[in-house]
Design a protein that fits this description.
The strands form 3 sheets. The chain has a 10-stranded mixed beta sheet, with helices on one face. A two-stranded parallel ribbon has the order 1-2. The protein is 31% helix and 19% strand. It is built from 10 helices and 14 strands.
């Protein structure tokens, strides 16, 4: 891939300004290019009609605006849309679009596959194929923005309101490319997402949490899923290197703006981590950390041995946490029928009747 022309969609505005400067152009041309790619969704230089024709020709000879090929899409009965993209070297990645009454959220992937080995997650069965480039990370947002504008008739250039980096891969295991992508997405001349509307989730790479805090300003989520080291190490190999004590100390160090909280994701698995004692331990573990807990009933897969909990059990767990003064919410699982819910992204087609319907 290194032999290909430079992908302008993978460059921050600062880096794009350097490229434009080397072509002898004035700095404002970089801003024009950046806006065409990330605000207007241009897929070719020919679309950039306010750039001189001679500049467009020179750019086409030395650079490219690479886009992801849409390989497949499925729409769930609940309105969730899973889009599978194919990269230039044939890797398959998935993004999940979740519209609701008050927001339009995209779940973004940062890697093709994942190296973390969490045994309750289908993505882990793929292993790690490679990191995604900043252009491939942002390209998911560009592509879905274009589709939502077209299919839902939005007049604004950016219908998406929220981004969650909870798709395929461990975001902090691809930190440099993630950071570049966040700079593009946060830029006023790009997508202009506020830091309040971007959340990055990690399984708990402790040194990278400290870097993430120092070098970005978006929200943090921790995939926790257990309340003892023995329990967590069984399902999440990362815990053998950075245990709960180390992880929670990193969370206590994490700088939070006033009113901000760290989100802790807790996948409820029947008979494994859903007891009253688990709830009490969880509240104790998070004591002193500005936190909220998203309780996620497990999404079952035939290949994996864990089982989900009934809604009543999830609600009882939430009530226990609330009684212990810990904000907790049972998260609605979106897109289960198309294998688009938490832990299900593995480039497989869903099986329900809605999963077979084409997305316009």
């Amino acid at each position: 891939m290194d032999s290909l022309p430079v992908d302008l969609g993978a460059l921050t505005l600062e880096d794009l300004s350097e490229v434009v400067g080397k072509l002898g152009e004035r700095p404002y041309r970089a801003r024009q290019l950046f806006r065409w790619i990330h605000q207007r969704g241009a897929e070719s230089f020919d679309e950039m009609t306010d750039l001189p024709r001679e500049l467009r020709q020179r750019l086409s000879e030395q650079a490219a605006v690479r886009t992801l090929d849409r390989d497949a899409a499925q729409r769930s009965l609940d309105g969730t849309v899973k889009v599978r993209f194919r990269t230039r070297d044939g890797k398959l990645i998935e993004s999940v679009y979740m519209p609701s009454a008050d927001r339009r959220t995209l779940c973004v992937s940062t890697q093709a596959g994942c190296a973390m080995g969490c045994i309750f997650c289908l993505t882990a069965t793929l292993g790690l194929e490679r990191n995604l480039t900043p252009g491939e990370i942002v390209g998911q947002v560009n592509a879905v923005n274009r589709e939502v504008r077209r299919d839902e008739g939005h007049e604004g250039w950016r219908p998406l309101t929220n981004l969650v980096f909870m798709g395929m891969g461990e975001p902090l295991n691809n930190f440099e490319n993630l950071k570049a992508a966040l700079a593009i997405l946060r830029s006023e001349d790009g997508h202009n997402f506020s830091q309040r509307h971007i959340t990055v989730s990690t399984v708990g790479l402790v040194p990278m949490i400290d870097r993430f805090a120092a070098e970005t300003d978006v929200k943090l989520a921790i995939s926790l899923n257990a309340t003892t080291d023995e329990q967590r190490s069984r399902i999440m190999p990362v815990n053998r290197k950075w245990n709960l004590e180390a992880l929670l100390e990193a969370c206590r160090r994490f700088p939070l703006r006033q009113g901000r909280r760290i989100t802790f994701e807790y996948v409820l698995m029947r008979g494994f981590n859903d007891s009253d004692e688990d709830a009490r331990r969880l509240a104790e573990l998070l004591r002193g950390i500005p936190a909220k807990v998203n309780l996620i009933p497990y999404n079952e897969a035939p290949e994996l041995s864990f089982r989900s909990v009934a809604f009543e059990r999830a609600e009882a767990f939430r009530e226990l946490l609330s009684g212990l003064h810990l904000a907790a919410f049972v998260r609605k699982n979106r897109g289960r029928d198309i294998a688009a819910a938490c832990g299900q992204l593995a480039n497989r087609q869903g099986s329900g009747p809605a999963a077979q319907a084409a997305v316009p």
